[in-house]
Amino acid sequence: MKIIYLYKKGYPNMKRKNSVENQSTTAVQIPFTNSSVTSKDDTTISYRQLGQGPGLVMLHGTMESAQSHMQLAGALSDAFTVYLPDRRGRGQSGPCGDDYSIKKEVEDLDALLTETGACFVFGVSVGAIVCLQAALSLPAIRKAAIFEPPIIINGSVSTGFLTRYDEEIAQGDVASALVTGMLGSQMGPPVFSSIPRWLLKLLTKMMMASEDKKAKGDDVTMRMLAPTMHYDLQLAVESEGLMENFKAISTELLLLGSSKSPSYFKVALNALEKALLHARRIEFPGLNHGASGNTNRGGQPERVAQELRRFFI
User: Fold this and answer.
1) Which of 164, 161, 162 is CA-nearest to residue 173?
2) Mean pLDDT across the chain, nearest whole number?
3) For position 15, what pLDDT does the model report?
4) In the Cβ-directed half-sphere of 39, how many Cα atoms lie within 13 Å?
5) Is 37 helix (H, G, I), strand (E, B) or coil?
6) DSSP helix, strand, coil percent of the chain (3-state; round to 5)
7) What is the Cα–Cα distance from 72 to 80, expressed in whole angstroms?
8) pLDDT recorded at residue 28
9) Cα–Cα dist 37/47, whole Å
10) Which candidate, 249, 272, 253, 256, places its Cα nearest to that of 312?
11) pLDDT tens digits, residue range 126-141?
């Protein structure tokens, strides 16, 4: 599950709104157009578009939005038309809904692929699970790059912290919920396990306050994203047992991972590599789960862009 490093770093009823010029406010000013499509259940899915060339859709992970991969998109925009959707529940997209499931996410991706004619997809973390599931049923996908999907393999990671997280969100204690999510998903540095929760909560409050103060325009903040972690954890739970289904994927795949990410991501990639003999795998030495994100969140998008360029061209 792709939790931002807090302390570092088509369908007949589908519609499209008129594009409007905008700019990214994440780290570097990158021009883009903002559009939307309507998914099968009438949920609006907003997306950013930039560049020129074959269409490439990037699906972000947990505690992220379309803005989280703007630098990666910018690095690829000379060769691809890049589409960055806000997955449902984020940004200008509609709510997750009471019947949320991986099926809904695949329908959202299908709507975007149909609208844009894109045939390449890149999924990060939970977004990668969506891309894998979509590759089973959407013939429009010609190639898919998969970055560290949190597929649960024989209990490789516990989601028991979800109960505490949900309770803290319900109480409006966003800082505590984010700390619970970060520790439960093993996304913080090892030293965090020895830091008192009250101090982690205080640091998180300070970071959220600073981010809220600096937010501009359509920026999506940690405070806004916090409730969506529930749904991504739901997808991770839903992924358990899907590996057998993924063996039927015939789409050309690139499996990506980082050497410093939590071990359960490597467990999932190992299982995928074994199940999908036609897939190619690459590991980024010295990087972590945030490798593909903007540099202000600890990412190194240029390194990831090099491998994506080689794969999709």
Assistant:
1) 164
2) 89
3) 37
4) 24
5) strand
6) 40, 15, 40
7) 11
8) 52
9) 8
10) 253
11) 999 999 999 999 999 9
Q: How far apart are CA 54 and CA 52, in angstroms?
A: 7
Residue tagged 């990410």 (tokens): 261
Nearest to 1 by CA among 166, 291, 226, 229: 229
Q: CA 212, 217, 220, 224 torsion: positive or negative?
A: positive
Order of strands, edge to edge, in the sheet holding 252-258?
A: 20-23, 31-38, 44-51, 81-85, 55-59, 120-124, 143-147, 252-258, 280-284
- Per residue in 217-238, pLDDT (tens digit) is 889 999 999 999 999 999 999 9
Q: Where are the alpha helices (DSSP H) in the chain?
A: 70-76, 102-116, 126-137, 162-170, 174-184, 197-214, 222-225, 229-239, 243-246, 263-275, 301-312
Angle at 92 between CA 30 and CA 208, to 5 degrees: 75
CB 182 within 8 A of CB 174: no
Tokens, residue 206: 């300070």
Counts for the chain of helices (H) and strands (E), in that order: 11, 9
Task: Give the H/E segment covering residue 280.
Answer: strand 280-284
Q: CB of 154 within 8 A of CB of 125?
A: no
Closest to 13 (Cα-Cα) out of 111, 100, 116: 111
Q: Which of 240, 270, 4 is nearest to 148 (CA)?
A: 270
HSE-CB for 134 with a 13 A CA cutoff: 31
Please report where in the chains the tokens 């204690």 appear, as a residue: 173
DSSP for 57-86, please give it: EEE--TT--GGGGHHHHHHHTTT-EEEEE-
- Closest to 53 (Cα-Cα) out of 87, 80, 21, 30: 80
Contact 296, 3 (CB under 8 A): no
The phi, psi pair for 51, rounded to 5°, reads 90, -170
CA distance 142 to 119: 5
| Dist CA 273 CA 153 (whole Å) | 13
Rounded distance between C-alpha atoms, residue 99 and residue 238, angstroms: 13
Amino acid at 36: S
